[in-house]
Design goal:
Blueprint: H1 11-24, H2 34-46, H3 55-71
Amino acid sequence: MEIHPLQDGNGRVSRWIMFKECLKNNIVPFIIEDNLKMFYYRGLKEWNNEKGCQTDTCLTAQDKYKAYLNYFRIGY
C-alpha cells in the first residue's frame, strides 16, 4: 500500500483519518502544521527509499500536540 498526497486537497482528508485512527487506538494524535509540512511531503515522497523517514516529523508534531494538551490540562 502506498500513501501519497492527493492533488485535489484530499490530503486533508487523509490527515483527518490519521488523527481519527490515533484517537481510536489510544495514540496521542498529531497535526502537521505549516512549519512541518515540507518535511511531511518529503517523507511521503521518500517513503519507499527511506523507511521511517516520517517518524521524526510525526513525533515532533505529536510533541507539540502534547504541549497543547498539557496547557489545557487534558490527560493522555
